[in-house]
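Issue 218. Parser rejects a valid record. Input:
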Amino acid sequence: MPEELKRYNHLRYQENSSENDGFIDFLYENTESEAPEVNVDDAWMSLQNKIDAGKTKSNSWLRIAASIAVLVGVSLFVWKLATTPDQVNIASQDEKINVTFPDGSNGVLNTNSTFSFLEKFGSDRLVSFEGEAYFDIKKSEKPFIIQMGEVQVRVLGTAFNLVTSDSDVELIVERGLVAFEKDGEQTKVAAGLKAVYSKADNSVAITENSTANVATWIDGLLEFNDASFEDVVQDLESHFDVSFDVKNQNINACKVTVTFNKSSLQEVMETLESMLEVQLEKQEGKVVVSGQGC
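Output the parser choked on:
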C-alpha cells in the first residue's frame, strides 16, 4: 500500500470524515494492483471437478453402507437358518425302519410308510405319519401328536400300533391311553382295545382286541389262545396283507389256539386246514376258506 494511502487513511479517519470526502477516488487512483485476469473455462472446469469429487465420496459412502446392509441381511438369514430346526423325513420301501424321535420315544416304520417331524420338538411333539407303524412313546407333560391328514392321535405315554389307509385309521393300544381327535373332539381308547376311525362318516368304532396281537409284522410272531376263527382271520389279513373269503360262516365260530413264529402264509394255511378240517385256497389274490369247519 502506498505511503500516501496510509497517511490519508490515518489522517482522514482521525478527523472522522464522512463517506463523501473523496476517499474512494483517492483509493482508486493510488492502488498499485490490478484485478487478475480470470479464465472462465478453467474456473468452470475446476468447479466441476470439485463437485464430481464430492459426489464420488458420497457414492463411496453409499456403496459402503449398502454393502454393510447386505452383510447384515445375509448374517440374519444365516442365523435364521442355523436356529430353525430341520425337517426330518423318513420313508420306508421294502424294509422296516427303527426311528428314535427327538424326545427319546421310539417308532418302527413298516414297509411303504413315512414319518415327518422336526429335528427338535417344540411345545408339542408332533409327527406326521402315513402307512403302518408301532409307537412306544416316552411319558412327558408335552403331548405326543401323530397327524394323519384331518385326524390325529394324541398321547402322553403309551404303546400302540397304527395303520392308515384311504378309507380309515386303525389303532390297537398295547398299554396306556390314546385319544383319536378331529375338530377338537376326542375319543379315548384304552389298552387292550382296538379302534377304527372311518373317514367316510367321521365315526370311531371300538372293540376288544381279543387276540392280544398288536404289531406282529415287527417280529413275525402270531399268538392265538382260544380265539375265534373270525378274529384269527382279521389278524392274518393285517399281517399278510391279504383278504380272506369264508364261504361257510359257521367256520368263524371255531376256536383256535396256536402260535406262528415267522411262518409263511402257505404254512399258516396248511396248519389251519389240519386243525379245523377246512380247505384254504389262494384264488385271485385272496384266500378262500371252505368246508364244514369244527
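Fixed in the parser; the record now loads. DSSP finds six helices and 19 strands in the chain.
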